[in-house]
Amino acid sequence: MIISTAWRAYASRNGIKRAIIPVTALVLTPIFLILTIAVDAWWVIALLLSLFLVLLGIYDMLQPRWSLTRNFPVAGRIRWIFMNLRPYFRAYMVEGDEEGKPFSYEARRLVYARAEGYPDMHPFGTELDVQSQEYMWLTHSINPAKNADVKSRIEVGSGRCAQPYSATLLNISAMSFGALSAAAIEALNKGAAIGGFYHDTGEGGISPYHRKHGGDLVWELGSGYFGTRREDGSFDPDLFREACDDQVKMTEIKLSQGAKPGHGGVLPGAKVTQEIASTRKVQPGVDCVSPRAHSMFSTPIEMLEFADQMRTLSGGKPVGIKLCVGQVFEVLAIMKAMLETEKYLDFIVVDGAEGGTGAAPLELSNHVGMPLLPGLIVVRNALVGTGLRDKVRLAASGKIYSASELAACLAIGADWCNAARPFMFSIGCIQSRRCHTDTCPTGVTTQDPRRQRGLVVDVQSQRAAAFQAKTLEALGDIIAAAGLTEPRDLQPYHLYHRINGTESYPIDRIWHFLEEKALIDAPKETSYGHWWRAAQANSFLPAVKLAHDDHTALRRL
Fold it and tell me: Measured between alpha carbons, how far is 343 from 339 in angstroms, rounded to an integer?
């Protein structure tokens, strides 16, 4: 009676054609029942399938949430299946080698080859469109150098810190325990220990898995102060001092990150296990939310004072900041604060808006924040233009997976680079893009111990170390081809960028590269003059009206 009533209501509303699947199932069910009795057990399977389709069709007809399946019961679900499978069909069967996003197949193949020790050569020439406006290249010399020293390290905090640190040219960028699995954190840290490079903890605090193999750590402190916070979420100096042991080499204050600048991170309560809660000093099973802004400072000067406090608490280890560049005058405000107080950051890491390892709101990921290239140029100009470049080291982070990106950042002005997703690839990530669902198939971004089992730390750590070493080896080839022997010898004029089909220029002919102390001596004559007037050491707010009537006041970067 119930089925008959539902059918009459559905058929009168939608018509006979749209009800063909549930009608067919209703008709075939008694037939299959008779055949099951008369023939063999295979008909039982058919009967059960028919019954399932009948019940599913009835549910689809009556449920109020999805209009498609109300009108096309069962059949409408086929669309869902193909929508769910679409990214995988496209990645493996449709897209070209250079089409995949955010990392192409060619980029992933390069990382895999270097991590696993396979040949990373490419046959038959480039597949890139060299006439594209996105195409960039590095110039070589008729007289190349015999060798280039890519194992040299960059001193951070030298002459100012009691415990300066020597950083390599490529390190592991910030990825938190919780966003990454315990096995992934352990594999990355062991890889860092093998290769002699550093491992940024991300803002999730220092877990036991960061500690197992002794790899150098850069402790990132976000606005949640995870791992060194009181119950009210404020910074606890005593906890910081206790945790900042010999393995922690530097501290990094995270102001913002590329994937979601100005947005606090969120770890869903379902993923906040007892272990993660203990690491972060939060409550298990409760959403772990990072505030948008820091509670320990609200002005550039207060930020420098906080950095100075952490330098003292850590026993004289370097302290820096990480940010995705937004308002240019805010970057200049930090420079003015350093000039005024003579309290200096030891390093600044510029995170490009194209970065990101976990999940982020789509609008922020796509349309908020400055990409790495212009962001790096802004901070480089801010340091050079104020005469602070010799006091503050500069690093770059954001979609750096090969020696060519590494060389480009060094040419613009970076001292070293950090990479996140490429190191994930090196330990098994396949870009399934399930980072936020806890269903990562390779165990890299899931807290499910059954999936983590697939990630063998001893194997994947060797691959992380091999990827870093091979990438630096390739960087040496580029530097030597340019006729240079040191990474620091790369200059902006070594990097060319195509503008259109007939024009291409060195990067310093496209973007403005300021001269030493230009912002001190003659700021009005630079393209940063209006932003310089807006910057103030005691506030992140602009000192002048930014919407200026003079169209020449705000020129291109």
Answer: 8
- Contact criterion met (CB below 8 Å) for 535 and 329: yes
Mean pLDDT of 353-362: 71
Number of helices (H) and strands (E) in the chain: give both, helices first.
21, 15
Percent of the chain with pLDDT over 70: 85
Give 164-191 as a 3 state SS string.
Answer: CEEECCEEECCCCECCECHHHHHHHHHH
Q: Which residue has the tokens 């940063």?
A: 528
Using alpha carbons, list the distances in angstroms from residue 190 to 193, 210, 325, 443, 503.
5, 9, 32, 17, 46
Residue 478: pLDDT above 90? yes
Instruction: Write down the pLDDT at residue 28.
Output: 60
| Mean pLDDT along residues 49-73 | 83
Strands 136-138, 495-498: pairing is antiparallel
Rounded distance between C-alpha atoms, residue 195 and residue 183, angstroms: 18
Give every CB contact of residue 120 below 8 A, 6+ residues apart in sequence. 110, 113, 114, 470, 474
Rounded-to-integer distance, Cα 427 and Cα 248, Å: 23
- Report the distance separating Cα 286 and Cα 283, nearest Å: 6
Question: Which two tokens mark 224?
Answer: 């949640």
CA distances from 248 to 229, 272, 359, 407, 453 (A): 17, 24, 27, 27, 28
| Nearest alpha-carbon partner for 306 in 257, 250, 237 | 237
pLDDT at residue 280 above 70? yes
Pair type for strands 266-267 and 288-289: antiparallel
List, in sequence order, every residue forming a beta bridge with 348; answer none if it has no partner. 321, 394
Per residue in 359-401, pLDDT (tens digit) is: 667 777 777 888 999 999 999 999 999 999 999 999 999 889 9
Residue holding tokens 């270097």? 114
**CA atoms lying within 13 Å on the CB side of residue 304:** 21
Instruction: Give me the amino acid identity at 301.
Output: I
Question: pLDDT tens across 424-460, in order?
Answer: 999 998 888 888 778 888 899 888 888 998 899 999 9
Task: Measure the CA–CA gap between 223 and 288, rounded to whole angstroms.
Answer: 12
The answer to whether 513 and 381 are in contact (CB under 8 A) is yes
CA angle 478, 483, 489 (to 5 degrees): 80
The CB density around residue 127, as the number of other CB atoms within 10 Å, is 11
**pLDDT-based confidence at residue 509 (cuts at 50, 70, 90):** very high
pLDDT at site 372: 93
